[in-house]
Design a protein that fits this description.
Length: 132
């Protein structure tokens, strides 16, 4: 199976082969700012299973624990299509919304719970791992 994520204008694409190694939600303030929502949801694939297309701009940020995230976004429409994080070497992370696929697998991990908005309740078919 190949899933394709893209920005709104289609200039950037990530073709991801097979199932993701991990699907998670993150409640950190940086993910809230990156998405413009109250949490981020992302899927992680080994680099060898991802083909990247387009010429992104990049932004590197440092999280509360001092680790970096290098976000690749479209210079035309601004959508983040993939990123790499220091704590997951060899993996490419893709925001799940970039797939525009309501059948995408549900998250199994929830991190930065202490920053979660108190009204958010994630409905999943199984338990979430709340550790990183």
């Amino acid at each position: 199976m190949i899933r394709t994520a893209s920005c709104q204008c289609g200039a950037l694409r990530a073709e991801c082969e097979g199932e993701p190694a991990r699907v998670s939600v993150c409640h950190c303030l940086d993910c809230q700012r990156r998405t413009g929502s109250v949490f981020g949801m992302q899927a992680h694939w080994p680099e060898a299973q991802v083909k990247l297309h387009g010429a992104p701009r990049e932004y590197t940020r440092y999280g509360d624990e001092g680790h970096w995230a290098r976000e690749s976004f479209c210079p035309t429409c601004g959508g983040t299509v993939w990123y790499r994080i220091e704590r997951r070497p060899g993996f490419i992370s893709v925001p799940v919304g970039a797939f525009a696929d309501p059948t995408f697998p549900e998250p199994r991990f929830s991190v930065w719970e202490e920053r979660r908005h108190p009204w958010i309740v994630l409905a999943t078919e199984g338990p979430l791992d709340r550790s990183d």
